[in-house]
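Handout, tutorial session.
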Amino acid sequence: MQLSTVFRKNTDSAVAAIIGYVIVLLLTRHGGVGISPDSVTYIAAARNLLEGKFLIGHDNTPVVLFPAVYPFFLSGMMKITGADILQFACVLNGGLFALLIFLCGTIMQHFMAASTWYKRTLLFCLCFSPSLLEVFTMLWSETLFIVWILIFIIVMFRFYQTSSSYRLIILLFVVAIAPVIRYAGVSIVVTACMFLLIQRNISAGKKALNIFFTLLAGCSLLAFNLYRNLLVAGTVTGLRQKGITSLFTNIKYVGLVFCDWLPFIKSNQAFAVGLTLFFLAAATAIFAYRYFSNQDTKSYEFIITGFFLAYCIFIIVIATISRFETLNNRIISPLYICWLWCFTCFIPSVIRIIEKRSKKILTISILFVLVFLFQLNQLLTVYGWYKVNNEAGIGGYAEDIWDDSPTLYFVKQNSNFFPGKSIVYSNANEAVYLFSGKAVQSLPERVHVKIVEQFLNQKTFYVIWLNLSGNPDFINMEEIGRFKKIKPIITFNDGVIYRCSTL
């Protein structure tokens, strides 16, 4: 299909994309795009790539916690624009959000029960989705990853239509890139293999060959990335702790995110667990019905349901095995669009098969109320964010309180304050880099005993302590004081610079 035809049939999608773009700009108008510690790593790596340094972070150490593609993407955008990422991050995120919405429109155009009113209603919901806007107002790799999920769904759909070698090559490319945007992209590799395994009307030999090539492609760039990490840092994905939350707890956390997506629901633990299990069971039943009925296994709806199941199960299991931040909207947001589609795409078909006028009017009225409540909840949430963001900036390092920090201002203005080759640490080294440009080391997390011992065995070092940072995992000054002589060099109202030496 020609691009002109795609745009002509998706004028409503283009309008929704523009609206989404404007909303992102409005939410980031004061203070710019949201910046978290992860964002600072991406920013530093992108800047260093332009300077010829390969994936070096804000502390002058190799980036291994995150895969390579997103820093390369940011670096490429900086090269094209000739500007620093912080100067155009709002526009970039707005553009990615607009692309996301437009791709959603083109996908819905090809639903089995394609409906103009359904498509436009969903587009309107996506434009004001707190789940998506929380991500697309931050400088996070999820912005690229969620767009890539839609690209995967489109490519998988087209491969299912005609299993040509050309479309297989495109699928292999998409699958290869996914895990090096985010490690969670492994779920896309798994999903692709699942669909190739259950594909009908194809010989067992060709099916096995397609799966082999898909696994090979999915592991290729990821293996290279992990091997590089092992060479430069001694670990494949950084110092990660074993999971400390149970499977049941992670199911609950996912359910709490689902509760936030639904209108005016106050959840408890039992309800959150039940909601997750309900959506998983319902999606499994829908997926099985579509497959065994053999009526729409080549449809977008079938692929969407399969991905919803694969990603949801994958993220719950991996969070149980490995410890990372509590499962929250940021991590679950790649499910939002598929969740919305999976449990609403049948509505146009239901309305069409209702023949009695009174029942049809009643059904449409109920649906209108439900959509109104859902969208009202979203609009109220986004408007609340808009008011807060306009006053103080997006939560994180984009907030005014960080930009006004006397400690960080002093470090920026006194680049030669620390003598010679002094070793400098901070409990918020990302903030030190972002606001002063100075690369310092992070205080170690107390759970890494050997690293803490190496840290304390040093004769002399400095610590920039920022009161605004509240990470409880870091060793604190009281603990350092048990092994070192601590001398406050200069004190500010938001932090202290310490010199630590042998007792």
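The second record follows below. Compare its token runs with those of the first.
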Amino acid sequence: MSTLEETIKNTTIEVPIKVKSKESIFSRFLGLLCSVRFGIILLILLGLACFLGMVIMQQNVDGFERYYANLTPSEKTVYGALGLFDIYHSWYFITLLGILSINIVLSSIDRFPKTWHYIKKPVLTPPLRWLKDQDEQSTFEIEGENKKAVTEKVSESLKKSGWKNLKINEKNGKTFIFTESGVWNRFGYLAVHVGLLIIFVGGFMTSQLGHTGNLPLTPGQTQNLIFETEFGLDQVQQVTKRLPFEITCTDIQQKLIKNDGSINAMNTIDWLTKVQIKDEGQVHDAVVQMNRPFDYRGYRFFQASFVPVGRARNITVRATDANGQTQDVQIQRNGSTTLSDGTKVRFVDFRANFSLGQEDPNEDTSSYENPGATLEITPVNGSSQTAYAFGEKMASIPVADKMVGGYKFKLVDFEKVGDQHILSVQYDPGVNVVYLGFIFLFITLVAVFFFAHKRIWAAIEETSDNKFEVTISGNTNRNQNAFQEQFKQFINSFQKGIKEA
């Protein structure tokens, strides 16, 4: 064996081997936070939490007390421990929103450089083979004096079809024309992400700063406290919160379907609560109806319920003097009037089921079985006395037939109303932010899906004397059918123009 052969056999050839560096835990963690798959998982979990919030009645919903009372002790304990009675304020729901927001921000940051590079540095002179592989492409041969003249024809045709900002480049003896439209559409995902973040911020503001409570109001009463019921594991407690202004109830009204019926909900068309809001020396009048809530300084007032104790918004009383002369007067609740001789009559009280004893506050008197009014009579030169006015059913009893201040009084008519209206007061500082986010998201989605980023390339290559091969192709990121039709119209228009020339 020769020395050369031995040298070759004994020579060791070292091939460099690239060892892939191990990715750090922090990098993998960031990759997880940025991934779309992780974001979809978070959205699914949020959707599941919202579904539980719909299936299990939340504590700020009217009627929750009855729902809670019908649960078994184990259900109360488990639901309370998991925070399912107030799931939208639970720590895990807020945590999911926070992590999803971070995922949206990081995924936007991760994707932005690629999108920016794609937009900032488009491929102006792609390979001819790549152009011919596009779904929308057309190749044909035309004649011209020179390449410059053909380039001008193609450019002019593109401009007539609405394509602007043409870029013309030379490479390997070929002339390339590039144009595009709707570049902003590539950044549509950023606008969608911003809309979602705005909604999340509004929801977070509501969950942390918002609250809902009940405001009981009786005519003549001034109130600045709302009462909110909170439910724990198996405990119920009432929390009092102060409003930054005072509310005075001036009147309550109940519109009935049948005036001779009861004041229950089945016989009611609408509830109206008239209030005055006293805030920093100013007074604002407002009316809260069943389907017309009132908004003030971020607070929204709804009709929630009423106390089914029969009262009268106003009464019509017939006063009969010793000579048998009568006069009818109408008196508003907590109001008074004056008879012809100056006698003052004040409306003190009304009971739907009258008795001289103490009234049972828990008695349902919505059917007005035995209505009667208590009056305060003050003659011109006399002291105040108490009188009673009843309807036909009790008009003959001694207390109703008694002369008081020179008059007998009879209840002729009255307008039915409950003893008290209970308004639901909702403070939602994030509601306008959420509305803004949804409007922004809606506009963005319409813009993203109804418009598209479209690109057109035209490659011009001289094949022989005064003959040139023109390859035109294009692509779009969405609305493929619309782009296909637009591309076809352009090609037909271009070829027709060449034939006419």
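Points raised in discussion: Residues 91-120 form the longest helix (30 residues).
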